[in-house]
Design a protein that fits this description.
- This protein is of the alpha/beta class.
- It has one domain: Rossmann fold (3-Layer(aba) Sandwich), CATH 3.40.50.2020.
- It has 3 helices and 9 strands, in the order βαβαβββαββββ.
- The chain has a 6-stranded mixed sheet with strand order 4-3-2-5-6-7, sandwiched between helices. The chain has a 3-stranded antiparallel sheet with strand order 1-9-8.
- The chain is globular, with a radius of gyration of 16 Å.
- The structure holds inosinic acid and magnesium ion.
- Inosinic acid (IMP) binds next to strand 5, helix 3 and strand 8.
Length: about 170
């Protein structure tokens, strides 16, 4: 495993992002919606630094990525989501890759009656976006490498690592 972003750098950047978010919402109540499961660690660290009236909810978005018969399909499940009508949503995900997941989930939340949706991602991969999408808050831009840790997985492993790393072959 090659460490790409150390735990210390992540913590420092999350602190900065929290400050940006507090400024952007200017005292308005916010509903944080995390996209499971990758959002887990980022969401837990970030919300503890956001000094605003705040609710937390989760949504699931799974893309099949060619592993099943319908490649590229995305299934959104929102039965854990409370009524978000009229609420300002801060949508959080681990990584912006092609942009398809976030584009779809933002549309879904607007459809459910959200007053606004801003998006925060820990990572943004360079050169991978297939649909135009501009997140409001970005932790780090990274090269086009498959990364794990701090919520990101490979086959559901490695999410608990406190740093972001690149898997080397054979691991
Ligand atoms: P998008 O719809 O292509 O932007 O996909 C975003 C989702 O793909 C993320 O929420 C991750 O679950 C997954 N993903 C993309 N790149 C990586 C990576 O490098 N490591 C782990 N998961 C990734
Ligand atoms: Mg994910």
């Amino acid at each position: 495993m090659e460490v790409l972003i150390t735990a210390d750098r992540i913590q420092a950047r999350v602190e900065e992002l929290a400050t940006e978010i507090v400024c952007a919402y200017d005292g308005k109540p916010v509903t944080v919606v995390g996209i499971l499961t990758g959002c887990l660690v980022f969401t837990a660290d970030l919300i503890r630094r956001i000094n605003l009236p705040l609710r937390v909810a989760f949504i699931t978005a799974s893309s099949y990525r060619g592993e099943t018969v319908v490649p590229g399909r995305l299934e959104i499940r929102d039965e854990l989501l409370p009524d978000i009508t009229g609420r300002h949503i801060l949508l959080l995900d681990d990584i912006l890759d092609t942009g398809k997941t976030l584009t779809r989930v933002v549309a879904h939340l607007i459809d459910r009656g959200a007053a606004s949706v801003k998006v925060g991602v820990l990572l943004r991969k360079i050169g991978r976006q297939e649909v135009p999408f501009e997140p409001d808050f970005v932790g780090f831009t990274i090269p086009d490498k498959f990364v794990v840790g701090y919520g990101l997985d490979f086959n559901d492993e490695y999410r608990h690592l406190p740093f972001v790393g690149v898997l080397l072959s054979g691991e």
